[in-house]
Amino acid sequence: MSSEHPINPDVVKRPLVICGPSGTGKSTVLTPILKAHPGTFGFSISHTTRSPRAGEENGREYHFVTKDEFMKRVENGEFLEWAQFGGNCYGTTFAALSSLAPKRCILDIELQGILQLREKAHLQTPPLDPVYLFIAPPSLTILKQRLKGRGTETEESMRKRLDAARAEIEFAMTGKHDIVIVNDNVEEARAKLEKVAMGYEGWQSCGDALPEFNIKDLD
Ligand SMILES: Nc1ncnc2c1ncn2[C@@H]1O[C@H](COP(=O)(O)OP(=O)(O)OP(=O)(O)O)[C@@H](O)[C@H]1O
What we know:
The chain is an alpha/beta fold.
């Protein structure tokens, strides 16, 4: 791994937005890159209205806030993106993201968040210019197998994840991502993601074509 090459200064200020259906292998591909380049990347700490779980610390896993405080921040326009899941609110503030400098921010967000970010990023001062990256499975049948194989899902959570996957894949099919990486062979996908994340020469054109998906395979 080319850890001796520092990150390209031209990309440091561009948040890297990584999305892809649950089970597509985002963590598998990203984790070795974070290890190979310590101190290079940062994840913004989200705000949430959910209660802290045992061992969680305010300001470390999340900024834990009340619903009132959260909604005040929404009204103040502080969130680049926010959404409600399971009765709780979660969001990323512009401040949480800019506090990561000089590290490159990696955002692992859901489709709803991406849609908001696309609307708001250029309105910030200074404007944000994210790179939108989609990690695609080689096929929807393989996506299902990986989710099952991980052994972490109940039937219900599997269904939810596959429904979310459908929306994410349909969005990817509109061609709005800057780069697509197909996670077929982990090592090849890792090398491509490293090139994009570090901004190595040719990073803009090292992506793959989106596979031809048959959405019905998710049924
Ligand atoms: N290229 C690959 N080939 C085969 N199996 C893979 C590949 N990439 C990942 N996997 C396996 O697929 C499963 C899902 O991977 P992982 O947990 O990294 O997905 P994820 O996209 O980060 O999911 P989530 O969004 O739910 O966190 C894991 O069991 C992982 O070992």
